[in-house]
């Protein structure tokens, strides 16, 4: 007995597991559905004579079901492999669905067309390279960030770079480079004459005994604490020597301490006395060097 | 549970000095240490725990005091102070890796000779870099790329069309580039760096993080166009060596020391920190130290650094032999999450 109508009434008005209602329409999730819409004429359960096209690994099969086999669910669906050629597949469909209702034939052919187009497109895309997004669990991302911060702290980058540069300097690859100390460069720029004079004077006074009062005038004035006394300038490097003293001379003329006294003490752990000065307002002949001076501190 | 487990039952074999049960089960003569977790009463348990903690603290303080006293005594007597203990760091306790390069490894030298970077590093070819992006560019991408262009000499930028990466590799090889750098973007931030050596060099994929552009660095300097010096720190293993040479092949092999530019790739715990500085050597007087050494004021040379250029961190994700080919390529090293399980194991 044909009871498609009863089945349809029950399914549609009571409950069908394959039905999916979304805002754009009512769809059927059944794999054998031709159109994909939940309809009286498209429901594979409510039609005893039905046909679909399904796709297995890129090969299309025509599935048919007839009333005669309705009582044998195992052999219900008849499957025919369709040729790869689109026209030949169409002909084959025509042959098999010859005396079937026009609507079904039409829908089956439409489905074949759509699936062929999709197959072409998927194959084209598979040839192209596409970016694959690989998600990482948040736990891993956080862990990496934490480890990076700790690694950065452990790295002591500035120190490492400085030691590396120092070792390179010691091996002597920079030897032919004029790597001048900045202070000397400044001095030469400002008062080249003064250096020349100094040189001449000292040459004259070699060997002559002189009694000089308050020899360490400059040193005493700047030196508030015994702690800050960094020792007498050594005679090792002549240039550096005259360089330091001259600079003190120039600075001494116009230096303005801010609140320097109290601040001067404890963190002077062996740095030069110039470093201990907090503010240096230096009025010198050449205003342009002021910028360089501020860099120094 | 139907029954209470008798204390000490089944644990009889594993009697350690931190005894498990009540004192009666411990061997005679050992100190009776009660694990607080055995006590069910919360009040009593917390008291016992606090007391144990306090005792431990006192012990530690005593040890420190003894050590200091011993040191002081030794100094006063003029003897050598006792050896200072070296604190354990992750670098100290790193798992020993058999792939660490040894200075006399012949296999290493042979590998280096047969390397892909040899033509560049032997000054036969000057490096020429092509920089491009992924298909979508980001907010900070162009700024980062312009800074990269200033850091790496002889580098060029080209916009990415919708070309396949493999096509771009072919194009670059035809135009005689030695390396191709692809700056990859994720969420509007440069996220990854893909460095491909050409013509058939390895492909390294790095994760990029912590990018700071030049304008965001305080007191930054402006780099010149002299060839920079390279500093590659801590690339110890064979893999690290290879990556280090890869970075080396991006830069011209003859640095111009007059330019006083230094580019640093510092590897710490598998993170490669990139820094770009200008340096100068300063001589400074230092006070004589009062530890009994010579009393003459010494002058020391100290380098001073001024940071210029971008600052970022790289982490190697994959290293592939040959040019970019994810499907068919041979991967020399791939990072897998299971490699992260040990905190003391590093690969670079």
UniProtKB/TrEMBL annotation, chain A:
Biased composition annotated in UniProt, kind: Acidic residues: 239-252
Main location: nucleus
Localization of this protein: Nucleus
Origin: domain of life: Eukaryota
Claim: DNA repair is one of the keywords in the record: no
Gene3D superfamilies: 3.30.390.110
Matches recorded under InterPro entries: Mak16, Ribosomal_eL28/Mak16
Keywords: Nucleus
Residue segments, region Disordered: 224-297
Chain segments annotated as coiled-coil in the UniProt record: none
Domain Ribosomal eL28/Mak16: 6-118
Family designation: Belongs to the MAK16 family.
Name of the protein described by the UniProt record: Protein MAK16 homolog
The gene coding this protein: LOC104756697
TrEMBL record, chain B:
InterPro entries given in the database record: Brix, IMP4/RPF1
Superkingdom in the source lineage: Eukaryota
Comp. bias regions, Basic residues: 42-64
Record-linked SMART domains: Brix
Gene3D superfamilies: Probable brix-domain ribosomal biogenesis protein
PROSITE patterns reported for this sequence: BRIX
Ranges where the record places region Disordered: 1-86
Residues annotated as domain Brix: 127-325
Pfam families: Brix (PF04427)
Comp. bias regions, Basic and acidic residues: 65-76
Record-given protein name: Ribosome production factor 1
Taxonomic classification: Eukaryota, Viridiplantae, Streptophyta, Embryophyta, Tracheophyta
Gene responsible for this protein: LOC104707945
